[in-house]
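Appendix B. Raw example, untouched.
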Amino acid sequence: MLALLTVVLISYLIGSIPSSLWMGKIFYGVDIRQHGSGNAGATNTFRILGWKAGSIVLLIDFGKGLLCTLVISQLAYSIGDGPVSFYTNWDEGAKLLILCGVAAVVGHMFPLYAKFSGGKGAATACGMLYGIEPVSISITLAIFLIIMFTTRYVSLGSIIACAVYPLSQLVLRYWLGWDIDGSIIIFSTVIALSIIVKHKSNIKRLLEGSENRIKSFKPSSGRINQEKSAS
């Protein structure tokens, strides 16, 4: 139990790293939460700080989920009874991967270092799910990038990618005969639906036609300066 609590806590603390907030404050002198949608995530970073900052934040957030799932989870086997490969007990190992990954996502959404006000968890969840089952998440990530760069709606890419993710696992399992455990598909579906629900404000703006696009993939410094002057 001590080993489990330790790696879950570490995963939460890593997930809590507010990459978008620190990126804005350290390199741009901007609190990302005071601009755009006010959300401390990769989507708002792309919109406000541009594609370079957005890409770095996206990779960091993705990496948090992947790191906690594949690396931090394995520290549990070095605590107490010593290291044991989780491949010797897939059921136990899979649960450990999922718990650490979920802890990272929760940390991203409710970060300790940012007064529990974080992002919507899509990128970190993507990293977590990549560590659990990489093929379907790779398909999903490709769809996200295509939609984001063609429509310039990061939120639309996230929403559609979340919907596609469990469907791609069903196709891989039942049509192509891949060995994907049913519990993973159920878990993926729950995660996907949770992220979509978290995007409910974006869905509303998309339906109303008021959702902000990434216009040029460059920092919107002019708008930031205008907002600062107005305030």
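End of appendix B.
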